[in-house]
Amino acid sequence: HSLKVWNVSGVLALASLFYAMAGLAALKTVDDSRQEVVLYAAAKKVVSLAPHLTEVLFDLGVQDTLVGTSRYSDYPEAAKHIDIIADAFQINVEAVIARQPDLILAWSSGGDSRALLRLEQLGFPVYRNEARKLADIGSTFVRLGTLFDLKDRGLALQTRFSRQLQRVKRQYADHKLKRVYLQISERQLYSINDHHLIGQALQLCHATNIFGKEAMMVAPVSKESVLARKPDVLIISSSQRGFSESLRIWGQFQQFRDKIRYVDSGKLSRPSLRMLDGIKDLCRQIHRSGG
């Protein structure tokens, strides 16, 4: 693949020289690892290595640029028809090289970091994403929009996202404060702390996270620790199938039988525009009557 690798590096070098000579501005942004990402034309062929980043490209309206995605890139429906060339643990490097993308989108805390570094060393521009605050999701629209020469569209999405978050906060500010146990795993008991994006969402819903002060962002918990903290509501963020299992586990405790709620993990766990729907569902389930 040496010829292809030289093609990528050579094109980037020639493009850089051309833009410098022509006095044209390159498309530049800084990713969440604080690395500058520079393109010399709007991205036309993109590989997305995380389902939420696939969704973000659909949010921006540039889904036609996708030439490869990762496993579980299943929303919207059209995403299911794009070639899968990676999963949470492994990247098919040969498949990426064969597609000659001019941009690779990756999730900083997931995926095959060694393979990603190799692709970067071969000359492929890599944008690493890691939203640490809900507001960072809005910033992602702007930064990625810039690389498609669609910064205005990114800014519009950022404004929409920010305004709706504030609207949710205002809507529930006067509601009774609820103590919430939020479970994010279907088979084992895992919860999140206040620093996690979903933990931040709980605060918008005017809820107290019973495991909010835990040191780990995602931590295993026990039935006994949940019982001892006496939550008002139990939220299970999972698939419908996983919820049935959780309902069986917690339904055996009489004090919880009318307090168990379901939120689609696809909406709530992916930092894209759709997370707004997940947050709204979360708040509704926490404050619905009977909980």
Question: Which helices and strands occur, and which strands form pairs?
Answer:
Layout: H1 2-22, E1 27-30, E2 36-39, E3 46-48, H2 51-60, E4 66-70, E5 84-86, H3 93-99, E6 103-107, H4 113-121, E7 126-129, H5 134-147, H6 151-172, E8 178-183, E9 190-192, H7 197-204, E10 207-209, E11 218-220, H8 223-229, E12 233-238, H9 240-251, E13 260-264, H10 265-268, H11 275-287
Parallel strand pairs: 3-4, 3-6, 4-5, 6-7, 8-10, 8-12, 12-13
Antiparallel strand pairs: 1-2, 9-11
Report on the architecture of this protein:
The structure is a single chain. With 291 residues, the protein is an alpha/beta fold. The protein folds into two domains: 160 residues, 3-Layer(aba) Sandwich (Rossmann fold); 114 residues, Rossmann fold. The strands form four sheets. The chain has a five-stranded parallel β-sheet, sandwiched between helices. Strands 10-8-12-13 form a four-stranded parallel β-sheet, with helices on both faces. The longest helix has 22 residues. The N terminus is likely disordered. This is Fe/B12 periplasmic-binding domain-containing protein. Keywords: Membrane, Transmembrane, Transmembrane helix. InterPro entries: ABC_Transporter_SBP, ABC_transptr_periplasmic_BD.
